[in-house]
Each structure stands twice: as structure tokens, then as C-alpha cells.
Request: fold
Amino acid sequence: MRILAIDGGGIRGIYAAYILNRIAEEFGITFCKCFDLIVGTSTGAIIAAALATNHPISDVVKLYEQDGRRIFKKQL
Reply:
């Protein structure tokens, strides 16, 4: 069984999304076809849901870039 697990970390999820996007671009990978299970914690779950439903990871990168500061506000 092939499992992809993506860690949480708030706005830092942009790093995981960016790396996964580069992998998809470089190797032409469709993650939902390459993995039996895609899971994540917190922000990783957002990325995992996109990958599991074959949503373009490039859209997730754009989400973090455009709305990340609004979605993941700094806590006091």
C-alpha cells in the first residue's frame, strides 16, 4: 500500500504544496493514481483533499499565495 502523509503547520503548508506541485510538473504525476491513501493533518489535510480528488495542486499553491495570510492569521 502506498501512503502519502502531509504534515500540518499553517501557512508553512505552502512549502509542501510547492514541492508537490514541482513533482507533479517534473514527473507528470497524478497523485490520486499513484497513492492508495492520501492523508494530512491541519493544513496538510487541505492539500491531501485536493490531491485525493485530483484537484490541481497548482491551484492550492495559488490559494496559499493569494489568501494564505488571511486564512492563517498570526496568533497572539
In short: The chain has four helices and two strands. The helical segments are 13-27, 31-34, 43-52, 57-71.
